[in-house]
Amino acid sequence: DxxxxxxxxxxxxxxxxxxxxxxxxxxxxxEAADLLKEFSPLLTIMxxxxxxxxxxxxxxxxxxxxxxxxxxxxxxxADNMVMEEMSLQQQRMEDMTAIxxxxxxxxxxxxxxxxxxxKFAQNGVVQAYxxxxxxxxxxxxxxxxxxxxxGDSNGAI
Length: 157
Known about the structure:
The protein has helices spanning 2-9, 12-24, 29-39, 41-107, 114-121, 124-132, 139-149. The protein is mainly alpha-helical and 157 residues long.
């Protein structure tokens, strides 16, 4: 056992190497502790304290840093999702405005009547715009949509 003790703890470099492989999984730390136990109980206690500190404290700190980074990424992702939704909402408003502007241009009018809107809404390109916005607008739906948009119920928007 003296040869094993000298191999593991016979100088500064072998000792550092033994300490490193003890906490990194390359050596069962109990085997190294058993070698020291026969030589010096105090060194055994110091060695076990080193292993406990390295494994339980330092590695937990490193794990905590990784977890905190993951939480930060998750928060950033949530913020990005909110920003994307706001941008999407703005794009929907712009698309809807473009649809109504096109309807006004097609009718050469400043206001859009229910009849003109229903006719305009039956156009395939316009229906594609509505589908892009998540709306499935058919003839009856287009009347209901017009009435919803016509807030003052004057028959024109």
